[in-house]
């Protein structure tokens, strides 16, 4: 597997997207951190708390959310670059497509199969919409291309329509 087929994304865009996405994830995971804070206050010592199940699960949740946020930021930035998206409207559509492909089936399942309440589904859907549509718009605002002259000549189509194996 060669890395040359992965689109380059500006590292600062990945960092900004990671912070944006991680903040959204933390808003959803706040109840977990609230329980951890209560356990830390109730424990007699710092060592006792660090050995507790709540501390371990919180550290794992925080770390995996951080890594997931970074990977999602790169993925959305790479899609923005690969599709040649330059406008906020285009990035919002791209984010909506990402939401529809990744999250919508789970919410439909939660609504009709698991019969969860609309409030729970609505909060989850809103958080995922912010993660997908919001992230793509923020990354478009910041800029994801590594070079200042990437995609200047748009008369040749989008980057996905170009064939890298033929001479142009």
UniProtKB/TrEMBL annotation:
<protein>
    <submittedName>
        <fullName>Uncharacterized protein</fullName>
    </submittedName>
</protein>
<feature type="transmembrane region" description="Helical">
    <location>
        <begin position="12"/>
        <end position="37"/>
    </location>
</feature>
<feature type="transmembrane region" description="Helical">
    <location>
        <begin position="92"/>
        <end position="113"/>
    </location>
</feature>
<dbReference type="InterPro" id="IPR013879">
    <property type="entry name" value="DUF1761"/>
</dbReference>
<feature type="transmembrane region" description="Helical">
    <location>
        <begin position="120"/>
        <end position="142"/>
    </location>
</feature>
<keyword id="KW-0812">Transmembrane</keyword>
<keyword id="KW-0472">Membrane</keyword>
<dbReference type="Pfam" id="PF08570">
    <property type="entry name" value="DUF1761"/>
</dbReference>
<keyword id="KW-1133">Transmembrane helix</keyword>
<feature type="transmembrane region" description="Helical">
    <location>
        <begin position="58"/>
        <end position="80"/>
    </location>
</feature>
């Amino acid at each position: 597997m060669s890395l040359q087929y992965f689109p380059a994304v500006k590292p600062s865009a990945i960092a900004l997207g990671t912070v944006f996405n991680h903040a959204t994830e933390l808003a959803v995971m706040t109840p977990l951190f609230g329980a951890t804070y209560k356990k830390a206050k109730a424990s007699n010592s710092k060592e006792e708390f660090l050995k507790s199940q709540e501390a371990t699960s919180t550290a794992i949740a925080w770390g995996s959310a951080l890594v997931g946020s970074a990977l999602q930021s790169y993925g959305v930035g790479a899609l923005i670059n690969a599709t040649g998206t330059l406008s906020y409207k285009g990035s919002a559509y791209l984010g909506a497509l990402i939401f529809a492909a990744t999250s919508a089936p789970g919410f439909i399942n939660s609504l009709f199969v698991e019969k969860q309440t609309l409030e729970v589904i609505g909060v989850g859907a809103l958080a995922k919409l912010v993660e997908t549509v919001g992230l793509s718009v923020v990354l478009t605002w910041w800029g994801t291309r590594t070079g200042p002259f990437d995609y200047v000549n748009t008369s040749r189509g989008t980057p996905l329509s170009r064939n890298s194996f033929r001479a142009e």
